[in-house]
């Protein structure tokens, strides 16, 4: 198979415009990530800690997460997530709480300091995403049948 052909082979080889669209999108994603990394560091938090706080706050329907859920959200191994939580506990950003319904589960919850950090940092991220909305929109691809296909679908 040609290295520039799509893995499924359905849409054929990539055009120059396809490569340009991929490069623009990757640049936008990396620019956003760099903005995030610099912004959180300016506020005294590591990027990993911000991601942890956001993952906890972003759990649908509740204000806590298990270590396993956080590992999945952050795409980390369980032991790496435990280390990250340990450091965040040490920095006063999160705390552990027993799960009253399951003694084997430990809930990771935000402290007041963690809540305050999110209250400052998340609007900055939302505003940056709004500014970058067009650049962060995945490119549209022409498909074999002429309909548009969005990258990743």
UniProtKB/TrEMBL annotation:
Residues 15-153 form the HTH marR-type domain. InterPro entries: HTH_MarR-typ (IPR000835), MarR/SlyA-like (IPR039422), WH-like_DNA-bd_sf (IPR036388), WH_DNA-bd_sf (IPR036390). It comes from the Bacteria. Gene3D superfamilies: Winged helix-like DNA-binding domain superfamily/Winged helix DNA-binding domain (1.10.10.10). This is MarR family winged helix-turn-helix transcriptional regulator.
């Amino acid at each position: 198979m040609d290295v520039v052909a799509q893995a499924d082979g359905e849409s054929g080889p990539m055009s120059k415009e396809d490569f340009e669209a991929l490069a623009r999108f990757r640049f936008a994603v990396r620019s956003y990530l760099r903005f995030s990394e610099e912004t959180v560091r300016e506020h005294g938090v590591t990027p990993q800690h911000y991601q942890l706080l956001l993952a906890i706050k972003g759990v649908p329907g509740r204000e806590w997460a298990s270590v396993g859920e956080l590992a999945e959200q952050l795409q980390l191994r369980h032991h790496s997530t435990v280390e990250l939580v340990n450091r965040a506990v040490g920095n006063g950003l999160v705390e552990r709480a027993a799960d009253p319904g399951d003694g084997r589960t430990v809930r990771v919850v935000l402290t007041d300091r963690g809540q305050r950090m999110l209250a400052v940092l998340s609007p900055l991220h939302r505003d940056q995403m709004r500014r970058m909305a067009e650049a962060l929109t995945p490119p549209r691809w022409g498909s074999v049948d002429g309909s548009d296909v969005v990258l990743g679908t």
